[in-house]
Design a protein that fits this description.
This protein has 4 helices and 27 strands. With 391 residues, it is mainly beta. The radius of gyration is 28 Å and the shape is elongated.
């Protein structure tokens, strides 16, 4: 039966891996200024890409575009990237590595910049790991970085170079604006997008904000009842012949799953917190000794999920969890021994349709007798979990 459970998980992962390939209507402009309509693999890149995959027809061979061959590319109604030769301040973004110099540390770069706002002024962003830099251009001017830098002025004091506000005031000034119109703007995407949009729409102008329609709920809450198929064994390590099979049983479980959707890769990744109650009552025989287990607990798994959207209503998903050793238990015992748990892990996958979901999940050995040096237990379970999305 355990082999069948493993096969189910493998099949789900395989199906999901196939389902994630999504080519969407888009275009690119080559170095000869030819605009070519195509279908682009939309990865909703968290970091700016150096290349992209496309098909000229929905069923044609996959080709690649890169900085050497493409001036611009985009996914229709979703994103646009432009090829830029510019300079960038690559000063460290981590506080432990800040420099002592106020001025930017410029490096020439050749990269694809993501367009955030398009109009008479354009706003771009470059992201790589923890580094985020914003760029701008006005009309047909060159693309330049909006300058912001944190730096040390002493061993303990950090200062900020906020020259980007001066750049906005000089080059992207709102009509009839006062200086305080830029003084409260932070070096954040939301603040800058709002400002550039307002500037572009002044005097009856227009503005395009890319990705604006793609925002979805960033938090989900599900009620998750289900069934656990659990099995356990125990061994006194001082007596190898003492192995006792505690059997298996099917019991109810119930939980509340909170999911925070991460803001990249088209909402495919989520962080999970899944407090849940389960119990296991069983027993076994070792010679004339009867070994009984009564285990009831609330566990607090923390995990990550990857979603594969088949359409607006249907998706597949796979997830993995870290289950801390700490849990609430209800006077759980194995004969006269108090039960205490070690960390364990869980892996699962399933399908969701609208607000309903079904998941299969396997939990690795929990070890219920961690406080007893000479005792070794093996407790595992396989769960079938039904979900109903409340939020």
């Amino acid at each position: 039966m355990k082999k069948h459970f493993s096969c189910i998980i493998l099949v789900l992962v395989s199906i999901s891996a196939f389902a994630q390939i999504s080519f969407e209507k888009g275009y690119f402009i080559d170095k000869s200024n030819r605009r070519i309509e195509c279908f682009i693999k939309n990865k909703d890149w968290k970091n700016n890409p150096a290349e992209f995959e496309y098909r000229l027809l929905t069923d044609s061979v996959v080709e690649k575009g890169n900085l050497g061959t493409v001036k611009e590319f985009g996914v229709t109604g979703f994103s646009r990237y432009v090829n830029a030769d510019t300079k960038i301040d690559l000063s460290p973004a981590e506080i432990d590595n800040f420099y002592r110099k106020r001025d930017p540390e410029w490096s020439p770069v050749h990269l694809f910049l993501k367009v955030l706002v398009e109009g008479k002024s354009n706003l771009y962003v470059y992201t790589s790991g923890k580094t985020t830099r914003f760029f701008y251009s006005v009309s047909d001017s060159a693309i330049n970085q909006l300058i912001y830098k944190e730096y040390y002025v002493s061993n303990e004091q950090i200062a900020e170079n906020k020259k980007f506000r001066e750049q906005l005031w000089n080059d992207v000034r709102l009509a009839n604006a006062r200086m305080n119109s830029v003084e409260n703007i932070g070096y954040y995407e939301s603040d800058l997008v709002r400002y550039f949009k307002k500037y572009n729409e002044g005097d009856g102008g227009s503005s395009v904000v890319f990705g604006e329609k793609e925002k979805k709920d960033s938090f989900h809450l599900r009620f998750t009842p289900g069934l656990n198929y659990s099995w356990a064994s125990v061994l006194n390590t001082d007596n190898p012949d003492s192995y006792t099979d505690l059997g298996n049983s099917i019991n109810f479980r119930i939980g509340i799953e909170a999911e925070i959707i991460l803001p990249f890769n088209r909402n495919k990744w989520g962080i999970l917190f899944d407090p849940s109650y389960q119990y296991f009552n069983s027993g076994g025989q070792y010679g004339s000794l009867t070994v009984k287990i009564n285990y009831q607990s609330v566990e607090f798994p923390i995990g990550i999920r990857h979603n594969f959207f088949l359409n607006e209503k249907l998706k597949l998903f796979v997830d993995a969890f870290y289950i801390p050793g700490y849990s609430f238990d209800f006077n759980s015992k194995m004969n006269d021994l108090d039960i205490g748990t070690r960390i364990s892990y869980a892996f699962g996958g399933g399908i969701a349709y609208k607000k309903l979901s079904t998941e299969f999940r396997y939990c690795t050995n929990r070890d219920l007798l961690k406080d007893y040096i000479s005792m070794d237990s093996d407790y595992r379970r396989f769960s079938v979990i039904l979900g109903y999305r409340i939020l």
